[in-house]
Amino acid sequence: MLLGKIIGTVVATRKEGTLEGLRLLLVRGLDLDGKATGALVVAADALGAGVGEVVLYASGSSARQTDATRDRPVDATIMAIVDQVEVGGELRYRKV
């Protein structure tokens, strides 16, 4: 799983039938200090996460292991909403 922040939503009125009902979110990868890394990813939302939240997302075949995404053509899925990140006893992030 990877750490990221939801920065927006993606709306597609025409899409493959098995994607119907899935909410698509735009995620920017984060490092442990909360700084942006890498490219943007469109991820299926398996939880009801919102813009501005820090999340854990899975990509590749792992993205299709949730009840919401099983057997659907997704390459990234929001798997968890992060409450806090602690590294070596140091608190790096806490949800407000």
Task: Characterise the protein shown here.
This protein is an all-beta fold. The chain has one domain: EutN/Ccml (OB fold (Dihydrolipoamide Acetyltransferase, E2P), Beta Barrel), CATH 2.40.50.220. The chain is 0% helix and 49% strand. It contains no helices and 7 strands. It has strands at residues 2-10, 24-30, 36-45, 54-59, 76-81, 84-87, 90-94. The strands form 2 sheets. Strands 1-2-3-5-4 form a 5-stranded mixed barrel. The chain has a two-stranded antiparallel ribbon with strand order 6-7. Strand 6 and strand 7 (90-94) form a beta hairpin. It is elongated. The two termini are 22 Å apart. The mean pLDDT is 93.
The total domain count is: 1
Q: Mean pLDDT, as a whole number? A: 93
Helix percent reads under 10%
Strand content: over 45%
Shape: elongated
What does the radius of gyration come to? 14 Å
What is the terminal-to-terminal distance? 22 Å
CATH architecture: Beta Barrel
CATH class: Mainly Beta
The number of strands is 7
Largest sheet: 5 strands, mixed, barrel
CATH topology: OB fold (Dihydrolipoamide Acetyltransferase, E2P)
- Alpha-beta classification: mainly beta
Oligomer: single chain
Strand order of the largest sheet: 1-2-3-5-4
CATH homologous group name: EutN/Ccml
Order of helices and strands: EEEEEEE
Low-confidence stretches: none
Helix count from the secondary structure assignment:
0
